[in-house]
Amino acid sequence: MGVLTDAATTKMSSKGQVVIPEEIRTRLGLSPGTRFVVLGERDVVILKALTSPTMDDFDELIREARRQARTAGLGRADVRNAVIEEKKSR
Q1: Is 35 helix (H, G, I), strand (E, B) or coil?
Q2: Alpha-carbon distance 39 to 46, whole Å?
Q3: CA atoms in the 13 A half-sphere facing the CB of 34
Q4: Which residues pair with 40 in a beta bridge?
Q5: pLDDT per residue over 26-78, tens digit each?
């Protein structure tokens, strides 16, 4: 993540809406409908754009999960059975 050097001001509407300045929207590639996680503490509000993982990201997550399962001595049947048991417990 880069250093935050470009600042802009905005204000909140009576409905709690805040406009993200155009230059920041353009630079970050934000478009209408972009969803955010909003964190707040004291006088700090942080918006984090939510992005869907790419297929490459998803494939990497699957590879890592499989590697960890093998390390733990779990096979496909063990994982499938664990999922079935978890679903039953809900």
Answers
A1: coil
A2: 5
A3: 17
A4: 45
A5: 999 999 999 999 999 999 999 999 988 889 999 999 999 989 998 999 988 99
Strand partners, 38: 47
C-alpha closest to that of 66 among 76, 53, 56: 76
Q: What is the per-residue pLDDT for 8?
A: 86
Helix segments in 1-90, DSSP class H: 22-28, 55-71, 76-88
- pTM, entire model: 0.54
Structural domains of the chain sorted by starting position, each given as residue range(s) with its CATH number in brackets: 1-50 (2.10.260.10), 55-88 (no CATH)
Q: What is the token pair recorded at 39? A: 């964190």
Q: For residue 34, with 0-12 CB atoms within 10 Å meaning exposed, 13-18 middle and 19 or more buried, which class applies?
A: middle
Residues 38, 47: contact at Cβ < 8 Å?
Answer: yes
